[in-house]
Amino acid sequence: MSRNKVPASIFKAYDIRGIVGETLDEEAVYNIGRAIGSEAQVRQQKGVIVARDGRLSGELFAAALTRGLRDTGRDVIDVGMVPTPLLYFATHHLGTGSGVMVTGSHNPANYNGFKMVLGDETLAEEAIQGLRRRIEQDDYYIADEGKYRALDIIPDYVARVVGEIKLSGRLKVVVDCGNGVAGVLAPALFRKLGCDVIELFCDVDGNFPNHHPDPGQPENLKDMIAAVTAHGADLGFAFDGDGDRLGVVDGRGHVIWPDRQMMLYAADVLSRHPSAEIIYDIKCSNHLGSVIEAHGGKAQMWKTGHSLIKAKMKESGALLAGEMSGHIFFKERWYGFDDGLYTGARLLEILTASDMTPDEQFATLPEAFSTPELQVKMAEGAHHAFIKQFLAEVSFDDGKVTTIDGMRVDFDDGWGLVRASNTTPCLVIRFEADSEASLKRIQGLFKAAMLSISSDLELPF
Q1: Radius of gyration (Cα) for the chain, nearest Å?
Q2: pLDDT category, 38, cuts 50, 70, 90?
Q3: Do 317 and 278 share a structural domain?
Q4: Which is catalytic among the residues 38, 105, 307, 438?
Q5: Fewer CB within 10 Å, N or C, the chain?
Q6: Would the pLDDT of 3 be above 80?
Q7: Would the pTM count as exceeding 0.90?
């Protein structure tokens, strides 16, 4: 792959992501480093922190990225193999405001990519396309080689979390890292907070030999549910491949999806900031907005995507935000970035502060008939073309249509959503309703509409 032929397809809406050896190789990564370094120069950012997750290509790509950054005169601080939240933490703690995480997040083992922050702005959309244009046009800033140093950021992060979070009781927690990079830290962190921890797949292995590290998919939670039941644990935490998302199951093995978790986080934040704005993505339950408003908060639905949510938080001053995928962003008492580890700690703090057991607290949260995130895999780019045609040709006369991100249709008795994923080539679909019958009716409406666009779709509902 020559320097001007880095595939445009790897430049996603809120990160860079490709297949190792096919759409992403060492030379491409070096040039991505030069492009990021050149943009950092424009933004007057001298120091850039680099970190990587546990993927097999991570060490090689982090080194190539570092060379590219240093060749533009950037000083690189390498914090090694850590979860993505620790890269974000380091940009605040060390005062650089800029960093690049080498991560494929929850994508298959043969993927890798980059999440980027420059001058406290998480790069998204047009800023990422700007990096692509720099590479295509060979438009790099040339400077004397920048400095390099390695630094262990884990002790500082642990000290900050343990100093911030105080548990009022002791809970038994199963921690499933899915062989992702959260394993370098999560068990030790929760033990330090005072929990009894049962470890599941906490050794880092980029082959992901046990199950895929994506807590958004129910099949990836089966092992944790079995362990919670077997050990009589109070709850279970599952992390995605780079540790910025959290999945939760209660002591009975029931999944507490992130939109229901957000009800607890929102009530807690609003107990101290009664009129705060709280943002949630378009995939979340209607009940979440109702809970936020019932506690005096301002509920704001927004587009899916960690970069887009962070930008909206910055613009609005929101103190909390969350996505159905498990990205949770605390601005109150924290920094406003998505952090599965810190989110787990906040949940433990909330649960131990109550006289009720965790199961009793979860049972107080309103629940509807709903599906998890459903996916329809498509060819690269075909999912965006499908949504464009869907928006142009489909109408729902008896529902309120929202098109900030795909199409969500709210009816009196529930809602449905179809959108294009910005991380993998697939459609993402979700439904919620007041009854099983309403759920089936809304699914039927969407099925007919989607098949009218592409009759050969294999729909999972």
Answers
A1: 22
A2: very high
A3: yes
A4: 105
A5: N
A6: no
A7: yes
